[in-house]
Amino acid sequence: MSAFLENVKRRAKENKKTIVLPESMDRRTFEAAATVLAEGIANLIIIGSPEEVAKNSVGLDVSAAQFIDPATSDKTEGYIEKLVELRKSKGMTYEQAKNLLLTDYMYYACMMVKMGEADGVVSGACHSTANTLRPSLQIIKTAPGTKLVSAFFVIVVPDCEYGANGAFIFADSGLVQNPNPEELAAIANSSAESFELLVQEKAVVAMLSHSSKGSAKHADVDKVLEATRIAKETYPELTLDGELQLDAAIVPSVGQSKAPGSPVAGHANVLIFPDLDAGNIGYKLAQRLAKAEAYGPITQGIAAPINDLSRGCSAEDIVGVVAITAVQAGK
Fold first, then answer.
1. Any idea where the domains of the chain sit in the sequence?
2. pTM to 2 decimals?
3. Which of 62, 179, 207, 247 is deepest in the core (most CB within 10 A)?
4. pLDDT tens for each residue of 259-307
5. Is the CATH number 3.20.20.80 carried by domain 150-289?
6. Among 162, 156, 163, which Cα is nearest to 7's?
7. Domain over 3-141+302-329 is classified CATH 3.40.50.10950
8. Cβ-based neighbours of 312, under 8 Å, separated by 6 or more
9. 119-145 as b/e, with b when 16 or more CB fall inside 10 Å?
10. 305 near 325, Cβ under 8 Å?
């Protein structure tokens, strides 16, 4: 286990939060829950019918979790009424709300957070990003002052001299398809805050491109240049620079050569990719070729931490994201 994850788990244990796991139809949920409960990382609420829970938790000790069956819980009626109230401007009826809460456990999980009965949600092992985030944006909404919701991965590369002892944030690598300059700047600011919260070191932010300081001319480069200008103007406290190629951003000798005088070149630990294609490809390259630990996609900008999982995740990945979610909830 990396020093990063050990530190996150320690902080989660010191300030214990309640996290909802709505995917009782997946065995990995219970494997992760058994570890989370045994290590005391968080209190857990698992949503599901008694039949689902019994079938998928065979041989695992998850007895310390709280189990909620929407079909029989005395909380459900109040959640239906609250959901109707929240979505009445969109035409939500009582029957629609009831159907959503009884059939889509992610909606139920978000209502638990909305009503103050839980601190965060981890889902996505067997649901798409859209199915995970739609309920959270409809019910919990964005955090005050946040321009948009975005997603990042914490990447921890073993035996790595770059970044913060091999720890980086890659963003946006999970949600915003083709951010415009204003959105890229907002993603940079949110990602710097997330890095400092989770890694507990100063964020050094690189706006990545296939060009370093004018080495190439293209509209794609112009977008990153404009995002850099906006970010520096809007968030002057950030240590941020661009446009930088990846090697110029993280390798000191290359940074000195390609961007002399840059406060970021050669030292970046928060990597802002120009679009989702680049961010997604980048994190998977690091994960598969550098054997990096990859935690995410972690969302930022929602009023409470609601985190998505990759559908290829392991139970260990879920444990890591639960710990990260608990630390986000405690900030």
1. 3-141+302-329, 150-289
2. 0.89
3. 207
4. 999 999 999 999 999 999 999 999 999 999 999 988 878 899 999 999 9
5. no
6. 156
7. yes
8. none
9. bbbbbbbebebeebbebbbbbbeeeee
10. yes
